[in-house]
Fold this sequence. Notes:
4 helices; 4 strands; alpha+beta; Arc Repressor Mutant, subunit A; two-stranded antiparallel ribbon; 41% helix; two-stranded antiparallel sheet
Amino acid sequence: MDLTQRQQEVLAWICEVIRSAGIPPTIREIAGHFRFRSPKAASDHVATLVRKGYLSREPGQSRSLHLTTLAESLFPQGIPLVGNAAAGFPILSEEHIRDHLQFD
């Protein structure tokens, strides 16, 4: 992944908002959430994510951010499919996630 830590955080939050609210956040909402001093900083992060192929947007429209397939692959939505049950020492199931069952 060729994103900075902050870009990853912004992308993860945008993904979370889209999945929970059903609509993308505005530039002002992004700026407010991350406590940027101006909406321009949020706009620059979004522009970078668009340029790198993680987001798409329709020019001139508010709330027009869309996650691309690349972004969807970074933050899969689904139910984790876990491997075999251990018969010996206890292990965490999170350590043995093999895949995610996707759903719409």
